[in-house]
Amino acid sequence: MKHQSIYDVSLDANPANYEALTPLSFAKRTAHIYPEYPAIVYGDRRQTWGETYDRMKRAASALVKRGIKKGETVSIIAANIPEMFEAHFAVPMSGAVLNTVNTRLDAEAISFILSHAEAKVIIVDPEFSDVVDRAIHMAGLTDALVVDIIDDTFDGGRKIGSMTYDELIAEGDTDFDWSGPANEWDAISLNYTSGTTGNPKGVVYHHRGAHLNAMSNIVTWGMQQHSRYLWTLPMFHCNGWCFPWTIAANAGVCVCLRAVRAEPIFQLIRDQQVTHFCGAPIVLNMLANAPDELKDFSHQVKVMTAGASPPAAVIAKMEAMGVEVTHVYGLTETYGPSVVCAWKETWDDLDGDDKAVKKSRQGVKNVALDDLMVANPDTLAPVPSDGQTMGEIFMRGNVVMKGYLKNPSATEESFKGGWFASGDLGVMHPDGYIELKDRSKDIIISGGENISSIEVEDVLYRHPAVMEAAVVAKPDEKWGETPCAFVDLKPGQDVTDADIIAFCRDHMARFKAPKTVIFGPLPKTSTGKIQKFILRDRAREA
Ligand SMILES: Nc1ncnc2c1ncn2[C@@H]1O[C@H](COP(=O)(O)OP(=O)(O)OP(=O)(O)O)[C@@H](O)[C@H]1O
User: Fold this and answer.
1) pTM of the prediction?
2) Domains 32-180 and 215-439 equal at CATH topology level
3) Distance between CA atoms of 51 and 90, rounded to whole angstroms?
4) Is residue 338 in contact with ligand 1, taking CB distance under 6 Å?
5) Which among 345, 291, 279 has a CA at the least distance from the CA of 315?
6) pLDDT in tens, the chain (542 residues)
7) What is the CATH number of domain 215-439?
8) How many CB atoms lie within 10 A of CB 154?
9) Longest Cα separation, the chain
10) What is the end-to-end Cα distance of the chain in Å, rounded?
């Protein structure tokens, strides 16, 4: 007979002690307690939490009235404007799944996403009206309800839908009694990967994971209540790393921003007393290299960075500017960052560069992730914690996606022996911190030795004339492969390939130094990542 614990008897979950986790409840709570507090700042527009929650409920109710059913997809293509934030609540409050579409894609890619996601409603920011109109026609989605956002601050665009977002809200009911998911495993959102390494895949998040990662962001960053968060990280990317829901839980302020440029960023940091923002290392690099007169603020600002390895030199420059960097790591498949370089006070006394080197390690699991390991991908045996032996990075826990939409083979392939396989290669340090060395496709094998492209890039970023750099493998008869560096110089700089190679040789093992250097701008993906597959082709031809 099955053993029954004394705790099993009559202690079942009931409505008094169990509620499916969802991040939607954060907006309800914050609006109830702080209705008069600011929720949104955008140009001259100001919205309190009371007004914002009212708009969310009305939009949700209007979607239901329009016949949207639980589990159907509502897509939105928008910059980081207030409606994009509201949609993160309004759409799942209606029971639908929110699909945020990358705004930098072309009509063909958007058409693929809208039809793969079977979008029933498409909400469009005027900046993207032309490309979305073409995509809708390509996809033949003539039955979808297309809703135009009106943004008076944006010059251009046109109406392509049958109603505006505000008209939709006007149809809705302010007393709409929305209910959370019956099951916390229900889908809340659908995010397509950017296809850096292949075709975009539709990553499905559940309410439970979104709730947990949103809360984890607060812990990871030690965010004080009512933080003032600047929207530099696209909300279309992994739902802005779950930050719309984090800001609601934090009763914070969304400082919205359409275009990510240094000037408005520094201006908003100063004028809106921004306390937190997120961005890929490429955004940090842009800010670090901006003219000094823009960097006119004196209060404490924190930035969270992920998406690619932040070169230690970029971290050091940001911190010298008075912006504290938190380095995190993750994938679309893990709700954005789920690993953090948790900081230790004992490292405070290191000098700036050594501190930055510590901070450029990816780190340890965040509070929402159950487990993290670096292991042999064939046997799943963890590698020794020696900071040397390379393995693949695996994660598991509640902040790993449900799977890829309508793609069972890719889903199965990514889940190995109870773990999610990241496709990233790294090492485990003796103190339990992981350090990413490369994507498995990017590692360079020269004369039988592994060379981490990230390590070489890190040295290149320390060269004072270098603005951006990327390193890929170049086929070589003698060595198999050699590192080939692509370098974009700062304006007005004049250095030769021999200078760059000599600099690298002085700062790292000689065999790791690039043998070839090619100057010029670097090709980037729609999420600002350097397209190494294009560089590999160029290296082969060079
Ligand atoms: N802190 C970090 N340091 C180094 N690399 C990082 C960091 N954070 C993220 N990455 C890289 O970004 C990848 C996740 O990116 P994302 O989920 O946005 O997909 P993608 O690369 O843009 O697209 P696709 O999965 O389609 O190739 C990780 O696997 C890792 O290679």
Assistant:
1) 0.91
2) yes
3) 13
4) no
5) 279
6) 678 888 877 788 999 999 999 999 999 999 999 999 999 999 999 999 999 999 999 999 999 999 999 999 999 999 999 999 999 999 999 999 999 999 988 899 999 999 999 999 999 999 999 999 999 999 999 899 999 999 999 999 999 999 999 999 999 999 999 999 999 999 999 999 876 556 689 999 999 999 999 999 999 999 999 999 999 999 999 999 999 999 999 999 999 999 999 999 999 999 999 999 999 998 999 999 999 999 999 999 999 999 888 888 899 999 999 999 999 999 999 999 999 999 999 999 998 788 888 998 999 999 999 999 999 999 999 999 999 999 999 999 999 999 999 999 999 999 989 999 999 999 999 999 999 998 888 889 888 778 889 889 999 999 999 999 999 999 988 888 999 999 999 999 989 999 999 999 999 888 899 999 999 999 987 677 888 889 999 999 98
7) 3.40.50.12780
8) 16
9) 80
10) 72
One-letter identity of residue 455: E
User: What are the structural domain ranges in the chain?
Assistant: 32-180, 215-439, 444-541
Residue owning tokens 């990662």: 213
The Cβ of residue 18 has, within 10 Å, a number of other Cβ atoms equal to 10
Is residue 527 lining ligand 1, measured as CB closer than 6 Å? yes
Q: Please state which architecture CATH assigns to domain 444-541.
A: 2-Layer Sandwich (3.30)
**For a pocket test of ligand 1, which of 191, 314, 329, 404 has the largest count of ligand atoms closer than 8 A to its C-beta?**
329
197 lines ligand 1 (CB under 6 A): yes
Instruction: Assign a CATH topology to domain 32-180.
Output: Rossmann fold (3.40.50)
Residue in the block written with tokens 């509640």: 398
Check if 422 has its Cβ closer than 6 Å to any atom of ligand 1.
Answer: yes
Dist. CA 27 → ligand 1 center (Å): 29
